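Let us practice reading a record.
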Amino acid sequence: MSKPVGWRAALLSLVFFAMLLGVWQIAATPRGGSGPALDPEYAKLIGAAAAVGQKSPFPTPIEVGAKLAEHLADPFYERGTNDRGIGIQLAYSIARVTIGYLLAALVAIPLGFLIGMSPLVYGALNPYIQVLKPISPLAWMPLALYTIKDSALSSIFVIFICSIWPMLINTAFGVASVRREWLNVARTLEVGRMTTAIRVILPAAAPTIMTGMRISIGIAWLVIVAAEMLVGGTGIGYFVWNEWNNLSIGNILTAILLIGVIGMALDQGLGWLARLVAYQE
């Protein structure tokens, strides 16, 4: 993309952002009252009986910005089990995603190589992959909690499950798509299978593998929020759910914003690695 187009795109993006904030500010500004009243039975159901009959206005962009600044000013405080800074909660989530994601890569990439290189193995394993792949990762959570009996490890297991399929499928596809001519040359030169896999197949399939890894990190970051809402305790998903129970919409919006920023950073990091791999090619 040329620089003039890039500048115009950035300017247009800022205009859209300003318009969004303006519409949000107008919509959230109370008129003739401080906001919609909570239904008494609903407030009691979610544990917010103290808020019955009170007004609960939707926060404006300025208020959310103030909340964000408040959280970022001291993100790592710890005043109790249910009162931790948002930086600590994000750190728990990122750690779980990292562990589950790396474990999935350790399994998916070698297995994908095996599937891509062997039609026999592909035929044997493909039915299992097609059955297991569509299962929602969260459907595994009750079974994980029952067998592992640890909420943190169960969350990591769910991240492992949701991360493995894009990497496995993309790796198998990339390996199977390597040009036959290159493999024939390696075979003619009597290069061993392991050397062929590392020196010929891996470089050729690397861009496709990196695409699978990039897809997996996005799915993993999506799933960890929902998983932590289910198991509770720590993590940004638990933080969102806890703030909902406290009816703190400003904190929820702050967490949503930070979830999006972290997700973008993870995606851009893997995208940079993918471009680096493609450049080396």
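A brief commentary: The chain has eleven helices and two strands.
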